[in-house]
Sequence to fold (149 residues):
Amino acid sequence: MTVWTDTRKTQLRELWDRKPQLSAQQIGDIMGCTRNAIIGEAHRLELASRKRGATANAPKLVRKPRSTFRRAIVPRRPPAVILPFVAAPQEAVEPIPFSSLGKDTCRAVTRMGSLLYSSESMYCGAPVVPGKAWCQHHFVLYTEKRSRR
Fold:
């Protein structure tokens, strides 16, 4: 912490007012303290604010006017129309219980019992799509693509 005696305050006022080309960092190096200590004490002494940095004396740059070229306005595409989903029609197949499900029968639940694998639950039982666990009808139902919101 810097101790500000009357002589140091007088030295700061002289350097601040009479040497405007010196930065706060340079004044701090001369006085043996930090840039922030110099700026803080100058503020407390209510010394006039200084122009900032080396660009303060530099001539102002004149901006070039914007070019008259503008991007072409492209109309937006109309939003995609989402049609209601209609599943492929299915042949009438008699639902079967879980105990009768085979390797090549659809495992889609058609009637739910009190528990998923209870004797009350009934399953589709139609032939499956190769490599899937459902028939064509349920495969289309379960793999419907969702629309983005």
The first strand starts at residue 96 and ends at 97.
